[in-house]
Design goal:
By secondary structure, the chain is an alpha+beta fold. It is 43% helix and 22% strand. It is built from four helices and four strands, in the order ββααββαα. A four-stranded antiparallel sheet has the order 1-2-4-3. The termini are far apart.
């Protein structure tokens, strides 16, 4: 169960909570934040991410699996 934090500006998740919310690993959430694919703010060693940014990311269709591995098998 995720424990999002709600404040006046909206609902926020840590990278671990966001990973649970999205159904992906925490390291992948951090990577997507570093790459700018998920909007987030670095807070110490963690990322703080708005729920609206997670919902926006979740609407983008993504193919399952590792694209690098798929390219090697062709």
């Amino acid at each position: 169960m995720t424990m999002a934090t709600s404040i006046a500006g909206g609902t926020f998740y840590t990278s671990a909570e966001a990973a649970t919310y999205l159904g992906i690993t925490e390291s992948l959430v951090c990577r997507y934040c570093r790459l700018g694919r998920i909007e987030g703010q670095k807070a110490g060693r963690d990322w703080i991410i708005r729920k609206s940014a997670l919902d926006k990311f979740n609407r983008i269709p993504r193919e399952a699996g590792n694209p690098a591995f798929k390219a090697q098998s062709r």
